Amino acid sequence: MTIHLLGNLGAGKTTLTRGILHGLGYSHIVKSPTYNLVEIYKISGLYLYHFDFYRFNDCSEWEEAGFRDYFNSNSICLVEWPEKAGNLLPSADLRCFLNILDSGRNIEIRSGTETGKQCLIHWTTEKNT
Length: 129
Known about the structure:
The protein is of the alpha/beta class. The chain has three helices and six strands.
């Protein structure tokens, strides 16, 4: 699953990732991947990759770094600043738009694929029960 995290600096993209990881049972420190470009987490045999492409100057850097192999059916890839990778990234299953408000944050989640749509349906059903 590929999830694009969209929002200005300080909007809460890494904080959201931290919450997702903790929700999946990960209890260790969750760092921002700003300088490493990717942080890797293994949870019960599932790999979660947290990317931050903010520092990319050219979308070809994504390909040169060998990140294509990380995006597969056995992983969850959360991507901050996906636009910096141009059209080289796989389509987002989910797109999370984070906005800073005077009173906190707002998030809008949109599906981009059938997998993303099913995920949102499941999440909405679970949330309302």
